[in-house]
Amino acid sequence: MAESEKEIESIRAASNEVSRQFKTLLDPNDLDSLKHLQLLILGRLQDSNAVLSHFNEYSEHCFAEVSSDFSRNTRMLKSMKSDLDYIFQKLRSMKAKIMATYPDAFPDESTGEVFDQRPNLEVPQ
Question: Coiled coil: which residue ranges (predicted)?
Answer without folding.
Answer: none
